Amino acid sequence: MSAITVTDLTKRYAPNGPAAVDGLSLTVEPGSIFGFLGPNGAGKTTTIKILTGLLSATSGTARIDGLDVARDRAGAMSRLGAVLEGSRNVYWTLSAWQNLVYFGRLKGLRRAAAGARAERLLTEIGLWDRRGEQVGTFSRGMQQQVAIAAALIADPAVLLLDEPTLGLDVAATRAVKDRLRALARDEGKTILLTTHQLDVVEELCDRVAVINRGRAVADLPTRELLAQS
Ligand code: ADP
Ligand code: ADP
User: Fold this and answer.
1) Ligand 1 mean position to 41 CA, how many Å?
2) What is the pLDDT of residues 52-84, one digit of tens each?
3) Is the ipTM of this complex over 0.85?
4) Where is this gene product found (predicted)?
């Protein structure tokens, strides 16, 4: 079973308006990293909002770990973590520890379980010793690491990331790439990310889909995409 399955997905924001997503189909295999590429306005954000249950599709289906987002939103969301706006989805005035425990509680974890998960995640990203410091005082790279950890708090199978390395310096970009690769390789997480950075595609993505005007114009292993260019 695929970790993410989008089938003939169409979204019109207005009843007779243009299709922002136009009959899009794609599948992402478990444990792989999938790059979702395309120019601005191509329909990437619309697709991601449907996958996260923020928008409903006009027609077609989106499934996370086999669960239809429209029919079983709670089930699908329990298998999904998302970092949609860089590190803006964490609270800057809360500490790293408070952020993770807070998101864990929101996801329905008991306090002890949320704490255990937070400890493990903060240790993995090297922030355990700084867990009591406000996230707003961290570097952008570390804020992004905390945002990724928050998305992972309930141990979802699937992680969605919108431009995960946008605006990060070289060292932080390296750290985020290493982190995402380790999550896929060592923990079997399935990752779908959008990016405009070729180095991210090259180094990280197993497969890419290029979309334009809501349609897939390419969907192939990264090495084939690179061989063409
Ligand atoms: P991308 O993320 O690839 O830049 P989007 O999914 O944001 O693309 O946009 C796809 C199309 O849908 C664009 O033509 C955009 O103008 C349109 N669109 C996006 N959001 C809305 C909205 N809330 N209302 C109407 N049209 C929208
Ligand atoms: P600043 O941007 O405030 O100058 P740096 O990015 O130089 O901070 O990072 C300061 C410390 O944090 C360094 O020890 C660096 O290795 C570490 N660091 C940087 N980015 C990350 C990251 N994404 N995750 C974990 N540690 C990081």
Assistant:
1) 5
2) 999 999 999 999 999 999 999 999 999 999 998
3) no
4) Cell membrane
